[in-house]
Amino acid sequence: MKYIVNTIVLCLLSFISCNIDKGSTEKQSDMDSIGIAGNIDLAINDSVCLSTAISFTPTSISLSESIQKDSVLDEAIDGLRENKLILSETGKARFIYIILLKMYYYHLVNAHQGFDLLQMCDTENSKYIVNQFKQVSNLPDRLEMLNSGYVSEFLKSHQIDCIQDEEAKLLSEIEDYENRLNDYL
Q: Domain boundaries in the chain?
């Protein structure tokens, strides 16, 4: 079932990304004058990418490896990174938050600790995800370390308007697991 859903999402991403030509100045002027139709396109793009992030299941401690093993997610990030797929600011933030929260939860469950995301930037797509998180959370470009647990702490400590059910659910699961780990210690 997951394979079928991923195939459908991949097809939608390919279709959506074909509609935006990165090098076209004519397209840029169209993008500047987007109205209601542009908002609909953004809503569709947001929805497809959020579905992709929600269906993402990390398979490794490594962010790079987990992204590469999920071809639909990898394709979506390619589209975002190459500006072939445009999301609203809220959609992009939610996409990034969900992916990184899922990685942190995977880290907790499998190693009982967070890991340095900066050390996991072996591919352009993993670098993109981490750099976008730094951008939306107003972190400096140069960091010595960015623990995967910081994403959870950042979202808990800041009143982020775009947090919705999926992120709240992930934050709750993370908090529950952290509490169980603390009780065990």
A: 2-184
